[in-house]
């Protein structure tokens, strides 16, 4: 990253633990091998629609339309063929089967005579809908953003520097490493964007990769300190949160705007209807979790601005010169008509429980008095800036109309303790069988390979590896297995320092490892003690590193990072200035607002007791000669006696 001509460094501790189990008994025929495991238990369905309307749902729906919509979905177990993800308005999305990340954004689409729930991908009219799925078959496991941009009208800078415009557009990008989650840290996993229009006039700069002015005097774009917004726009995106202990959580955001007008000459942004924001963070831990519905990430109170005037030279709360919200006019509870079967009208409600449709296709009345769910493992919330529904309760599942302005919906699940997000580290043994007093070596690689960490957008710096021997099982508790670490060599020939008793070794800091470079290799020398008993020895290697020199330039989705952070220079070329990266800002990391602030450290503590390693070939370490010598002697005696008897039988047979 570059900030004022200097290199800014964002560091975050990253941990990986690899456990090698060796049995001091007869066993395997190949060297033992272990490494970090793929992530499981992660899912998300996040969608925002700037304007939705349908009339006469019987079902089917007689007519159904959406303007400026965005959908982001994640499933670490893979999307199931034919399974729909359905929102409150009975709109179904069917992500590509087997993929794990999906994004869909568009300017407008219309359906006629659709079932409820429908299949949004099979509508009668789709204007510039963009979709993306991941992982792709080959690295970097994304087809990027530029290939997934659609606009019904797009001047693409043809009239530069006078005027420029696009209308009814969609963008989509998805990224997912099929082997490990760690490499996607620092990148967005999904990004979807839909807009009605975007216009700029009098360009004082160049064109970005999207064909837009980089320095317009007047534009309908948002301020440069936050996610890109234009006239009637909606965007949804998700990304990992680094817990700093080898696990990750998940964050998702939905942003909407009705009409921003950016006047560069006065450094002013006048925004009508926006920035409307819903953001959730679930870490799987007791700390770091948050949920907000409004521009302030520290508050749970609803905040849906009607008009804002912003100083674009400032960041944070100080940039807002004037703001008028629905809550200013209607208090935090907003306005709702009393419940009745004829009219459901709500304005400025707070985030509430999702009203999932029934199995017969009938919609469920949203309850403005209900509360959103946000825990360490779950976020489930919905909200409408304005909602009008007619004749919903007369004869279900019939309703006459359903109109939503600014619809937000978010579902996220993270496993307890967080999802596995370790640096892929491998460990192998030099021999499958080791006798007492026989030297052997272990080889540790950080990371496993360059391919394993594609497309990680940072260097690994200050890499510290420690290795610890423990007893997992002793056949005779009075005489446990005993292996001694005698020494080791790390990168650049730096020697490791064995601990007292030879049960551990620590290597000095090494690195940096740069993306695409060879693994950092550590060799550990060990020997089985003469008096070792039989059993199982567990050998745990822990790698702790800092993420340094992170930047959009190293990200395969640098264009998306540029759009999300509001840095126009990041669009397409990945050259994101300042501290704009997904390792966090504003002194709170990814759990806080992504705008403004300086570099931040996310500190990892302790050593993980994992990951669990399945189907690892046991390391054969036969016990001492005294232990197995008698067996060998008896085997030899039996063989000799048998041979003698067989010889005599054969002689008698010949004599007969």
For the sheet with most strands, the description reads: 11 strands, antiparallel
Output the structural class.
mainly beta
Give the helix proportion (percent range).
under 10%
Distance between the termini: 95 Å
How much is the average pLDDT? 75
Question: What Rg is obtained from the alpha carbons, in whole angstroms?
Answer: 30 Å
Distinct helical segment count = 3
Q: Tell me the total number of β-strands.
A: 35
Low-confidence stretches: 1-11, 22-34, 568-647
- Content of β-strand: 35-45%
Shape category: elongated
Number of domains: 3
Structure report:
With 656 residues, the protein is mainly beta. It has three domains: 2-36 and 422-551 and 606-623, no CATH class; 43-418, no CATH class; 626-656. 7% of the residues lie in helices and 43% in strands. It contains three helices and 35 strands. The strands form six sheets. Strands 11, 12, 13, 14, 15, 16, 17, 18, 19, 20 and 26 form an eleven-stranded antiparallel β-sheet that branches. Strands 5, 6, 9, 10, 21, 22, 23, 24 and 25 form a nine-stranded antiparallel β-sheet that branches. The protein has a six-stranded mixed β-sheet with strand order 31-32-29-34-3-35, with no helix packed on it. Strand 21 and strand 22 (343-347) form a beta hairpin. The protein is elongated. The model is unreliable at 1-11, 22-34 and 568-647 (pLDDT under 50).
